[in-house]
Amino acid sequence: MSLRHLLLAAASPLCLVAGPAWAETAISTAVTTPVTTATAAGGARDDVKVTSAGSIKVTSGVALTLNSDNNVTHEGVITISDASDASGVAIVGGKTGEVKLSGSIVVDDTTEIKDTDTDGDMDGAFAVGSNRVGVRVTGPATFHGSITQAAGTVTVEGNDSAGVALESAIDGSLQTAGAISVIGDRSYGLHALGTVGGDVAVTGSVTAQGKDSVGVALDDNVGGKLSINSAIGASGFRSTTRGTDAVVAKLDADDLLIGGPAVRVRGDLFGGMLIGSSGSASAYGSAPGVLIGSDTRNVRLGVLGTGADAFGFMNKGAILGAGIYDGVAAVGVKFGGLGHTVSVEGGVWNSGSILATGVKAGATAFWMGAGASSANLTNAAVIKASTTATDANDIAAIRIDAGASLPYLANSGSISAVVSGSKASATAVLDASGSLRTLENINSIAATVTATDATIPVTGRAIALDLRANTAGVTLRQYANSDTAITPTITGDVLFGSGAGRLELLAGVLNGAVAFGSGADSLVINGGAKLTGALTDAGGGLTVDIVKGRLTDTSTATVNLTSLNLGAAGELVFTADPKAAKSTLFNVSGAATLATGSKIGLSFASKLEAPASFTLIKAGSLTTGTLDDSLLGDTPYLYKATLRVDAPTTSLVADVRRRTAAEAGMTASESAAYDAVFAAFDKDTAVRDALLGKTTQAGFQALYDQFLPDHAGGLFHTLAAASDAASRGPDADVSMSDEEGGLRAWTQEIGVMIKRDVDRSTAYDAGGFGIAAGIEAPNTALGAVGLQTSFLNVDVDEVGAVGSESLSGTVLSAGVYWRESLGQLTVGAGITGGYASLKSERVLSDSGFTRTASSDWNGATVAAHAHVNWNLEGDTFYARPQATLDYFLLKEGDRTETGGGEAVNLAIEERSSSQIAAFAGVSIGARFGLKGDFRWGPELTAGWRQVSGDGADATTARFVSGGSAFTIAAPELSGGGAVVRLALRGQSDYVDFALEGGGEVRDDYEAYDARIVARMVF
Question: Which CATH number is associated with domain 719-1017?
Answer without folding.
Answer: 2.40.128.130
